[in-house]
């Protein structure tokens, strides 16, 4: 379970202080799927970034099974991101110097040495990689660079990279924003199916009613607060 209490993130805009996120309380049980909704500027991406340890909150607490996330030092945060988090960024964050296959394998590499230890060469890894490639319909893209792909193809590669290391917490920032309905359903089918089978928690920041409909729980953020 992840428990949030009094979580806040603020930014300076000149002399003015902007409240990017204010979330008094939330609980996310293991294995549940959540749609994080609200208008632009309500803190959806900020919440995901705080949960991933990408940014630090200015106040409050995030408690996980691994400890108090908001108290972690940088090494502990790196381990948390590497092992527990599968993050699908809104802008994908694919590395153009790498091929599609290498970008996906990077997800396993970042999981504290699975790649280095030869995990990427095991039969289990290869079967998982092939399953993701086929499910995302990107088998024919393996040797291409991200810059040669459409935004929809890049999105599907980003999803495969996030899931390859089998994370316990999947954070997806507008994961269907670049996709048509068919591919949106494909992505959400994969994300929700993975989380159910692996007892992983899913948080999806979204404006899309179709994406929201895949999640059995909803948390609504408002500018400067939580509804």
Automatic annotation (TrEMBL):
Domain of life: Bacteria
Matching InterPro entries: AAA+_ATPase (IPR003593), ABC_transporter-like_ATP-bd (IPR003439), ABC_transpr_LolD-like (IPR015854), MacB-like_ATP-bd (IPR017911), P-loop_NTPase (IPR027417)
GO molecular function: ATP binding
Keyword Transmembrane helix: no
Domain ABC transporter: 2-227
Keyword annotations of the record: ATP-binding, Nucleotide-binding, Transport
SMART domains in UniProt: AAA
Protein name: ABC transporter ATP-binding protein
Source organism of the structure: Veillonella absiana
């Amino acid at each position: 379970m992840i428990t949030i209490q009094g979580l806040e993130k603020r930014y300076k805009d000149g002399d003015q202080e902007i409240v990017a996120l204010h979330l008094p309380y939330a609980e996310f049980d293991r294995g549940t799927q959540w749609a994080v909704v609200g208008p632009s500027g309500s803190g959806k991406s900020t919440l995901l970034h705080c949960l991933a340890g990408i940014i630090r909150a200015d106040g409050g607490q995030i408690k996980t099974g691994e400890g108090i996330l908001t108290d972690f030092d940088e090494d502990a945060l790196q381990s948390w991101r590497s092992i527990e988090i599968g993050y699908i960024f809104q802008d994908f964050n694919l590395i153009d110097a790498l091929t599609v296959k290498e970008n996906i394998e990077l997800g396993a590499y970042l999981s504290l040495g699975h790649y280095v230890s030869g995990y990427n060469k095991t039969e289990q890894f290869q079967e998982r990689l092939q399953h993701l490639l086929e499910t995302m319909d990107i088998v024919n893209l393996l040797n291409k660079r991200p810059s040669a792909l459409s935004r929809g193809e890049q999105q599907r590669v980003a999803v495969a990279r996030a899931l390859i290391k089998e994370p316990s917490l999947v954070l997806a920032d507008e994961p269907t924003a670049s996709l048509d309905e068919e591919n949106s359903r494909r992505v959400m089918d994969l994300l929700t199916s993975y989380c159910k089978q692996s007892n992983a928690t899913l948080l999806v920041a979204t404006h899309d009613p179709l994406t929201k409909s895949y999640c059995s729980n909803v948390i609504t953020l408002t500018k400067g607060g939580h509804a």
